[in-house]
UniProtKB/TrEMBL annotation:
Domain of life where this protein originates: Bacteria
SUPFAM superfamilies listed in its UniProt record: Glycoside hydrolase/deacetylase
A GO term for molecular function: deacetylase activity
Keywords carried by this UniProt record: Carbohydrate metabolism, Hydrolase, Magnesium, Metal-binding, Signal
Cofactor(s) recorded in Swiss-Prot or TrEMBL: Mg(2+)
GO biological-process terms attached to the record: carbohydrate metabolic process
Protein name: Polysaccharide deacetylase family protein
Coiled-coil features, chain-numbered ranges: none
Signal peptide: 1-20
Length: 311
């Protein structure tokens, strides 16, 4: 999975850090040590009205336990208003420094003069992760990430965690430092998984401690999985889930004219894909599978308040 590979290539979690907590994450949240915990998480809120409608519906039905918001995107004000009116919902910031769609673009929340290495000649974020990883300044990435979090808080979002859109803000070691530094500054957990190993970078090591949240497994449907059938992929993920802290990333929207326009000529993670994700996670079949496999849905808010910000 692309996001896992990007994170795994850049981050270090040492054995000492993984073993430093006196209690397991499950025990810290009040569950047995061998519990199967799942953050069922919706990405990309704020990107479009269709994405917001589907994601808000799934949150209201408790079909997903968490979601994250793309602050630079045009429909951010709508989802920020929802967050402000629903303070119990688990909403993080989907840190965004790319703009991948063909005809639908956005740029930084920071003055473009201050983060010029992150934008193309038209003032938009680059379309690809490779471009921002090659051309972007880590110092400017840090400025932009921090300002996205600040804007979310100012807009009424009780930010529960940070994660990264397309893996871009974790695509180089220097970007990873910026990502972790901003998370630490706001006392927020950041999405990382247990496959993260082995870069001996003191700058990264210094940002990790016994309150660092590390997922045991991160799942996300890839194009080859979608071709075989999203229902089959998600069913197997749930049935084969092991004890520990797991996260399943989904992308929810309706296959309507708006989302078809946003994702034009981009079938991967397009409108049909997002409708299929919505249909599955909001289905009785999904709810029954979670129950049958004794999987407990948890939130980043619990992890933030009971571990990262614990007294």
């Amino acid at each position: 999975m692309r996001i896992i590979l990007l994170l795994s290539s850049c981050l270090l979690i040492s054995t000492g850090i993984l073993n430093a907590q006196n209690k397991s994450i499950a025990e810290s949240l009040g569950y047995p040590a061998n519990a199967k915990l799942l953050i069922l998480h919706a990405d990309d809120l704020g990107v479009a009205h269709s994405e917001n409608r589907a994601s808000m519906s799934a949150l209201d039905k408790n079909a997903v336990s968490s979601a994250s918001i793309m602050v630079p995107c045009p429909w951010f004000p709508e989802i920020a208003a929802y967050a402000s009116g629903n303070p119990g919902k688990d909403l993080g910031v989907h840190l965004t420094i790319t703009s991948e769609w063909k005809h639908y673009k956005w740029g930084p929340v920071t003055s473009r003069d201050s983060v010029s290495s992150l934008t193309n000649k038209d003032g938009y974020f680059y379309s690809s992760v490779d471009s921002v990883a090659t051309l972007g300044s880590a110092a400017e990435v840090e400025i932009e990430l921090r300002n996205q979090v600040k804007k979310a808080f100012r807009s009424g979002v009780d930010v529960t965690h940070l994660d990264v859109h397309m893996g871009a803000a974790a695509s180089t070691s220097e970007f990873v430092k910026a990502y972790l530094k901003v998370g630490r500054e706001f006392h927020l957990p950041v999405l990382m998984d247990k496959r993260i190993h082995a870069i001996e970078d003191p700058g990264i090591r210094s940002l990790l401690d016994d309150r660092t949240i590390v997922l045991d497994k991160l799942y996300m449907e890839e194009p080859e999985d979608y071709k075989k059938g999203p229902k089959e992929f998600y069913t197997q993920v749930i049935r084969n889930m092991e004890p520990g802290l797991n996260c399943l990333l989904v992308h929810l929207a309706h296959d309507d004219e708006e989302m078809q326009g946003v994702t034009k000529e981009h079938p991967d993670y397009g409108a049909t894909w997002r409708q299929a994700d919505f249909d599955f996670v909001t289905s009785k079949e999904c709810a029954d599978l979670l129950k049958e496999n004794n999987i407990k849905l948890v939130t980043w808010r619990e992890l933030r308040d009971k571990i990262v910000r614990a007294e």
